[in-house]
Each structure stands twice: as C-alpha cells, then as structure tokens.
C-alpha cells in the first residue's frame, strides 16, 4: 500500500488511497475511470459504515436519476455497498452501524434519513428512485456488500441474517444479496 500511495499521484492520505484502491479492485470489471470511482466514495462522517456506494443499471454507472429511461426495459440493477478498513483492529460499532444502516436504507417511508451525511442521503434517495423507476421493467435487483480490510484474521462479524431481514422487510419484492469479504491476504499481490 505504501508503494501504491507513492505511485498513485493522489497525495499522502493513506485512508483515501486505500479506499480508492479497494474500489478500483472491487469494480475492476466495470472499467471505471478515476472520476467515476471517486463519485461513489463517500469518505465522510455520519456514513453509518458505508464508505462506497455504486449503482449500476445494465452495467452502466448511474449517478443521476435522469440517466434512467423509464420506458426502457432493464435487465439488471446492481447496487454495491462498500466498507473499507485500512487498519487491523475494527471497532465493533463500525460493523453494527453498517448492519443497522440497512434498516433505514430499505425503509422507503423514511425520507428524512436523520443522522446521515448529505452525500449518502442523496445516494440512498437515488438508489430508491432507480429501484422504483425500473420496477416496471422487472429488472433483477442485486445488492452486493463488499468489506475490504487489511485485517487478516476475520470477516468482522457481519450479520448476514440481519441484512437479509432488512431487505425482506423493504418495499423491494425480489432481490439477491451477495456479501463478499476481501482481506489483504486475498489481494496481497496488489500491495
């Protein structure tokens, strides 16, 4: 990571570089440019453990609702939630916040999203609008949760059952949930 920081040209903020690197690796099949990757990075407080948030509709990155044509038939809506931890010790409340965030995200009636930062609120509202706007096309909805950490020992106690329950109690009728954990050892050759 030190070498990546030196070669990235993004300055010396190792956490920001780690988040960019992690996103770049997790989404490498999407061929995103630097600006597109940065558009999904939240990097602020009050993010409830969500550090990256990317919405893809038929493999196209969606950053504004006007990019979605309601008259078009879409096949796949994929929403990526990323959590990046550039440290070996993860506080339990970070994981708890991330797990609990899904209750608010999938509660479409909760429009205020109290306690969330504005960038994340906007991204959640965009995701909800995309879900509703593409609902008539019957697009397959898939939520991908990626945890990317340098912690080599564990997957940090994500409660997959709780996340599934949060999705099931939402207004979304059909969806797939994929939870993936990446630790430094699995991407060691990149550091």
Give a quick set of tags describing it.
single chain, 191 residues, alpha/beta, 5-stranded mixed beta sheet, 5 strands, 19% strand, disordered C terminus
Question: What would your notes on this structure say?
Answer:
By secondary structure, the protein is α/β, with parallel strands linked by helices. It contains 6 helices and 5 strands, in the order αααβββααβαβ. It has helices at residues 2-8, 14-26, 34-40, 92-105, 118-134, 160-168; strands at residues 52-57, 60-61, 76-85, 140-149, 176-183. A 5-stranded mixed sheet has the order 2-1-3-4-5, with helices on both faces. Helix 6 links the parallel strand 4 and strand 5. Helix 1 (2-8) packs across helix 2 (14-26) and helix 4 (92-105) packs parallel to helix 6.
Quick summary:
With 191 residues, the protein is of the alpha/beta class.
Q: Give unreliable regions as ranges.
A: 181-191
- Helix and strand composition category: alpha/beta
Radius of gyration, in Å, reads: 16 Å
Largest sheet: 5 strands, mixed
Instruction: State the helical fraction.
Output: 25-40%
What overall form do the CA principal axes indicate?
A: globular
- With strands numbered from the N-terminus, the spatial order across the biggest sheet is 2-1-3-4-5
Number of strands: 5
Task: Give the helix tally.
Answer: 6
Note the gap between the termini. Answer: 5 Å
> DSSP strand (E) fraction?
15-25%
Please write the string of helix (H) and strand (E) elements. Answer: HHHEEEHHEHE
> Mean pLDDT, rounded to whole units?
75
């Amino acid at each position: 990571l030190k070498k990546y920081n030196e070669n990235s040209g993004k300055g010396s903020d190792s956490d920001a570089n780690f988040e960019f690197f992690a996103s770049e690796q997790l989404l490498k099949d999407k061929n995103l440019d630097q600006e597109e990757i940065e558009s999904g990075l939240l990097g602020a407080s009050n993010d409830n453990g969500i550090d990256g948030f990317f919405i893809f509709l038929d493999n196209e990155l969606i950053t504004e609702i006007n990019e979605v044509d309601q008259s078009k038939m879409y096949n796949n809506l994929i929403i990526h939630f990323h959590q990046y931890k550039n440290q070996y010790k993860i506080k339990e409340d970070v994981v708890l916040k991330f797990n609990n965030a899904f209750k608010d995200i999938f509660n479409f009636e909760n429009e205020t999203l109290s306690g969330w930062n504005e960038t994340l609120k906007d991204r959640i509202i965009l995701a909800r609008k995309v879900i509703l706007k593409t609902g008539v096309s019957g697009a397959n909805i898939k939520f991908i949760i990626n945890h990317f950490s340098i912690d080599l020992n564990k997957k940090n106690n994500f409660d997959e059952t709780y996340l599934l329950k949060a999705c099931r109690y939402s207004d979304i009728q059909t969806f797939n949930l994929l939870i993936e954990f990446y630790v430094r050892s699995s991407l060691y050759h990149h550091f």
